Amino acid sequence: MGETHKKFNLRIEEDDKTVLLDCDISTDELEELVAAIGKELEALGIKDPPDQKQLKEQLNCAAEKDPHLVNFILIEGEPSVPLLCVTDDRMAVLLNCDITTDGLDVLAASIGKGLEDLGIKDPPDQKQLKEKLNSAAEKDPHLVDFVLIKGEPLVSPQDGKVEWEGSLFKTSLVKDKSTGKINYREKGTHDSVVKDTLLGHQIPAVEGKDGLDVFGNTILAGKPATNYPEAGDNVRLDTNKNAYYAQINGRVRLFNNILSVNEKYIVEEDVNMATGNIAHTGTVVVNRDVLSGAKIEADGNIEVHGTIENAEIRTKGDLIVHGGIRQAEGHKIVAEGGIQTKFIDGGDIQAKKDIVVEKEIINCNMKTLGAVIIPRGHIVGGEIIALKGIYAGYTGSQTYVPTMLVAGADFSVRYKISMRNKKIERTETELKQLRNFATAQMANQKRDFTTSNEEHTRTLLKISGIEQELQIVVDELKDIEAHTLSNGKRLVNVGVTIFPKTTISLGDEILTVEEETAGPVKAEIVEGEIQLSQGERSPDI
What we know:
single chain; alpha/beta; 24% helix; 37% strand; extended; disordered N terminus; 22-stranded mixed beta sheet
């Protein structure tokens, strides 16, 4: 037995609770080792030590990784909880303690001293502290994160805004009153107005109120914004009523915070080589087709009563196509508003608001900061990226055409995220090399004085500067990802059928459906992974 004692070493850490073990574990001597450790734990006065069975299980488990144990945590003490701590937002002081009648005076004195050491502004005196403790003890004498002191929260200001009349600047789908079905060709917003129409009222801003943290520091509420739109072309601002009025018949437009009413540019024929390309500051209406090679740019909406085929379309408003869109590779459509059409076959389609399609989306590279809505139609092939979710009748096809659906992702920041990740990787590599260099400098300095203190200090300063730069990039990346997460909707809802080889991407999770799945079914993140569950049935199915 005496020989066994020489084969292990027990040490108690400074917290008087954590016990470390150094030993070599041998299967032949395990029983003897366990017995010897148990006796020494008892001799050390360790409270509630593991029994022989538990010790044996611990050592067997540890030996599977490495039978030579050094600083092995045999008993882990509980972390100490501070008596007082300040919340991260500096708006509260939290108390952790057990209240006893006999120890109330001593406890109150300790708390008072702790508040003074923390630098808390105007802390309660001893009498007030005892009253707070007695009141708290009536409910529970064991206090955990008890709010002892609160700051004064700020009251946020309310920005000035414009309350628009009717459905102006509102985006929604319209139902046919006679059938109850959604009319995909009609928009909920009505932005065509007649002369002297009231467009909207300015709502005054409301001042906020500054707050105070527990240290007495002022938390500025800030000033409310009063960035009301400027009255632009064909708009009159009545300063007595703080109201905007149209001065002509036309379509209302709000761009770069300038409110204007523009006359429409109406094209009665096909847009082709004969008509030439079109660039207009207002709304463009094409009563026939937009043919191959044509180009239309508009600051307002673009409405096409026929089809678009292999054309370049750019609009700072919405794109409405009553026929459909048929594009070959390399032809692009970009809308800063939404897109509504009957079908989309091929091409690169990009929008900042909802893309609503009646029948089908085929082999399309589609990106939007809104939702993709095709509740009665098919999405087949290509890649669909929609920040606000994807709603379809069918996805994929019976011929297993690979179809990628990405919901909740912001395509506009993908490049920014990629560049920041690369910069973080490069900076971390540089930091590792510099830290190794600094370590070598220190070793040289101790050994033969070949490195001066100044050289080592310069290296450490450079490391500190790069660490700060790295933290800035990391914070920027977190802000971008948090903004995307708060604005996005990681949801794919399929009303009828998901066909095999439909791949769904939600955040970092990817799921490829290998079997035909009947709807309605929705894909969303549940407990960190994509799960399919009962969804919403598409209308009119």
